Amino acid sequence: MNSETLTAAPPTELVIASRESRLAMWQAEFVRDALRKLYPSCDVRILGMTTRGDQILDRTLSKVGGKGLFVKELETALADGRADLAVHSLKDVPMSLPEGFVLAAVMEREDPRDAFVSNDYDSLDALPAGSVVGTSSLRREAMLRTRYPHLVVQPLRGNLDTRLSKLDRGDYAAIILASAGLKRLGLAARIRACLDVETSLPAAGQGALGIEIRAGRPELQAWLAPLKHEPTRLAVEAERAVSRALGGSCDVPLAAHARWQGERLSLVSCVSMPDGSRAAFGEACAPVANEAEAIALGDTVARTLVAQGARAVVDELAAARGAEPAA
Fold first, then answer.
1. In what side-by-side order are the strands of the sheet with 43-49?
2. How would you list the strands of the sheet with 174-178, edge to edge?
3. Strands 152-155, 132-135: parallel, antiparallel or unpaired by DSSP?
4. H-assigned helices in the chain
5. Residue 34 belongs to what H/E stretch?
6. Rounded CA gap, 240 and 258, in Å?
């Protein structure tokens, strides 16, 4: 945790807005407990909410409005004063926040890798031809269709427990989930294999928690400062910069992952068609000491992707869903 000196008097009451899924509540409780430890006299409570993203389970996110469906109701609670902060899995947060909101803190990252989960097989390589693999992510779908064209990829929606129950009742031979969520809920034993980042490049922000607040609340920024993890924040800034530059959303299979090599940050990214028919890759490494340098690194990788045809992929996918092409 960051040890910045607080300039505001300690808080007396804080309300955290959270989705009501078990994983989201774990994340909110993790932040609540950290704040209670920092401010023992503060009353820290959680406001549980059900978002549209939690309610619509029969269609993929890319067809019903994107990952922003998981955060809009929480932002409404921030805007009208029912809550002071909202805790998000950063991979679910749109690359550009609405006006009036800011990410006040990014916490230390959990395992960013994807997890292979199956009751009968040890790895993707062990799956017989025709096996059904479930995923909610176009990014993972593109990886599967590229590397394992003999497998059948089917959509998988619902919270973590729902997805696991669908696997357990035999709807899928295997499913791909984020390792971080399984580990946070004490379900690491369900992971048969963690996919290395070369096989399945993670989504921007995967494994990291972000705390969102209304802009213009410097005292809240100060109270949350000890929760910041600067190496994670800078890595995530670089990843999100790539996606932002390309107009990335859950409609676009875009992966971006940054790793520290001493004081240098190495960033790799990929944009592809969901069927794996076309892909663009970009990578760069540079010294990064602040947010501006992290964003510059992301922009450098984005330009490499554009030079390889990534813009055409993004625009084609936008046209397919009836949206405006990326700027």
1. 43-49, 13-19, 85-89, 209-214, 101-106
2. 152-155, 132-135, 174-178, 114-117, 193-195
3. parallel
4. 22-38, 52-55, 61-64, 72-79, 138-147, 160-168, 179-184, 218-224, 230-245, 291-307, 310-320
5. helix 22-38
6. 10
Work out the end-to-end distance of the chain between its first and last CA atoms, rounded to an integer number of angstroms.
Answer: 37
Indicate if the pLDDT at residue 95 is higher than 90.
Answer: no
pLDDT band at 58 (very low <50, low <70, confident <90, very high): very low
What's the rounded Cα separation, in Å, for the pair 184 and 111?
A: 10
Residue at 159: amino acid letter: N
Residue 254 structure tokens: 């875009």
Q: For 159, which DSSP code?
A: -
- Plot region of 7 (φ>0 → left; ψ -120 to 50 → alpha; else → beta): alpha
| 187 has a pLDDT exceeding 90 | yes
- Distance, in Å, from the CA atom of 87 to the CA atom of 115, rounded to the nearest integer, reads 23
User: For 91, which DSSP code?
Assistant: G
- Beta carbons of 34 and 60 less than 8 angstroms apart: no
Active-site amino acid positions: 92
Sign of CA dihedral 226, 229, 233, 236: negative
* Exposed/middle/buried for residue 242 (C-beta within 10 Å: 0-12, 13-18, 19+): buried
Q: Is the dihedral of CA 195, 182, 180, 211 positive or negative?
A: positive
Helix, strand, or coil here: 326? coil
Q: What are the structure tokens assigned to 61, written together?
A: 């996110």
Reported confidence tier of residue 62, pLDDT bands at 50, 70, 90: very low
Predicted confidence at residue 10, as pLDDT, reads 94
Q: For residue 307, give Cα distances in angstroms to 154, 237, 248, 310.
A: 32, 22, 16, 7
